[in-house]
Here is the input.
Amino acid sequence: MFPHPEDARYWVSGQANIIFQGRLPFHSLYEGTNSFRNSAEYKTSMVGTAYTALRRDRSVRYNTDFIFDVESAAGRGLSQALGLAGFTNLDVVRNPNLGSTPYVARCQIHQVIGLTGQTTSQEANFFALAARVPERRVEFRVGKMTLPDFFDLNSVGSDSHLQFMNWTVDNNGAWDYAADTRGYTVGGMAEYDDRAWSLRYGLFAMPTVANGIDMDWAFSRAHAQNGEFELRKSWIPERKGVTRLLFYANRAHMGTYREAVQAYLTGTDATPNIIAHEHFGALKYGFGYNTEQELTANLRAFGRFGWNEGQHESFAYTEVDQTVEGGADYAGNRWHRPQDKVAIAVVSNAIKRDHQNYLRLGGLGFLLGDGNLNYGRENIVESYYTWHAWKGLFYSIDVQHIDNPGYNRDRGPAWVGAVRTHVDF
Here is the structure.
């Protein structure tokens, strides 16, 4: 809405994102405690963020940024954000009892150490204020942050404010990244950037319980390690392309699906209950592949693949053990609206046999639990059109089709439509 001064030592901006979603009734043989409800329903969510940052001085080679953001999240998701691995609205806070009281979203120190006098330009933003940075450099960040700000980025499929809305389209669903209920954690990361590639690694706090708001500060027993290699290389001459390889390893107070199922089958537990079989220091690990490629001046394609070991409970993000997705967006230059975009993405999510058995016998995850399960992959198609109305004001129409919601062939398919208003100021 208002231009930001170029090369300023400070940053003050904000955003508001309002999503109205509705669901049509769909076929369902039964429902459980954590089911995606089959009746017609509509819900509205709103997220507002105030971004502030201060640059210590105008040094390019040794630059320091201080970042502080305040956020408020209000409204609810369809079915209280339960019943889908690929939920339809990334803005939804999964515990609506937290309310809309503003909270500190990010509080970081960002340090750049240049390894060469040669510089390159970058678009200044609320994570990094310098308009020019050394071509080869090391960057450090420490404080409160959300991992998708820096890992698994994708310019076609990462922005729930202007692009797709589904959890497993905007992020790799099999990446159980460290986060509290609102999506934030505390820790530190280091990144090495060269002309054509980058390497980043971070160590972060894990929640005390699955999808919990409180973090376990005993890093010796609970922590998340994340690493990523990024190669900025295009497979088409004179077009942009990026490939990213991600790995993660979480240690936390987690249980295993097989142990919970065995305790139920032997009569030790009245119902499958993974919480009763959690152990400190349990290890969950996985990896992800992320690619994006500019095909023409207006058309871009992207894809992701994710896998985790699937034996330990889904703990922080969502209940996915394997995911594969692909999609594309197209800019509106041909109809003289260069900031408009139309896009489509397809994602297929899966869980492993022990996870399936746990849900089939009536176990509950922090998202899923129909009371039974006739297993099938959860397949989602999402499409949107984003219309640039004026300066920082955008409107979007979004449609999602979910086949086998919650991996259950006895339910669905479900259709979800949405209207989104987004403003940057």
The first helix runs from residue 167 to 170.
